[in-house]
Amino acid sequence: MPKTKIKMSFTFPANLEFLPEIRNLVMIFCKKIQTINNQWCHRIESITDELCTNAIEHGSQKNKEVKLQISYKEPVLEIIAEDTGTGKKTKTKKELAKIRGRGLKIVKSWTDNFHFSKTPKGGIRAKAKIKL
Amino acid sequence: MTEAHITIEDLQSSDAQKILKLISVSGQLDESNIDEKAQEIYTVITANPQNLHLIFDLEKLEYMNSKSIGYLTDWYGKITEGKGKIVIARAKSNISDILQVVGLTQLIPLYGTVEEAKFALLNATPAA
Predict the structure, then answer these.
(1) B66, A50: Cβ pair inside 8 Å?
(2) What are the tens digits of pLDDT across the range A73-86?
(3) Model's pTM, two decimal places?
(4) CA distance A1 to B99
(5) How far is the alpha carbon of B12 from chain A, nearest alpha carbon, in Å?
(6) Which chain B residues have a beta carbon less than 8 Å from that of A109?
(7) Cβ count near A101 (within 10 Å)
(8) What's the start-to-end Cα distance of chain B, in Å?
């Protein structure tokens, strides 16, 4: 496969009901990339699910938008999940790290670089990079 | 809501002291359904506070998130407190992968078949 960047990005309502479809889309995306084996397809599925769950649960009012972007340029895959900062339970980056401990432990274990940052609109952007 | 089903079956135990149950989980467990589904297991634990031995058959479980792992950890704590045990059988590779990365396989052993899991439960030495 040529070394061009492949990207999938979309927005979805901040609603947990969308999680299975998002995981499905992520798996389809990963399986199209021959250099990502089955184990890593599932790990990327988990990472994305955890980040989207965070954005929905803590970052956005129900049915406000959450943005998800997954891109791959060999050998680096990048996942970005961004909330609107409108959630009732809006947390700081530090508080988020504490609450979602187990989920973030999984993300950190399976990524080479992971961090939260604030968006200009007051939301949180979670960005994860994996060198495959 | 994400689809998941839990079935609970009593198993015959050669050890009269041990209450043995097979818990088969199918589908996917995520943030949208785990809180509700977890209550089915808590009901079993509450009804059997002592000597409860559970085999989780995860052959048909396609996905589990971090919260479901949190619940599994809590069940382990409650059951071992009551001198019982939990084991897992037939987990798919992605499930065993996530259980390993959080360290849960150091507490809850994984087996390839339900028979192996049952043998391990019935022949394990009781917790101190």
Answers:
(1) yes
(2) 999 999 999 998 77
(3) 0.92
(4) 33
(5) 36
(6) 101
(7) 12
(8) 42
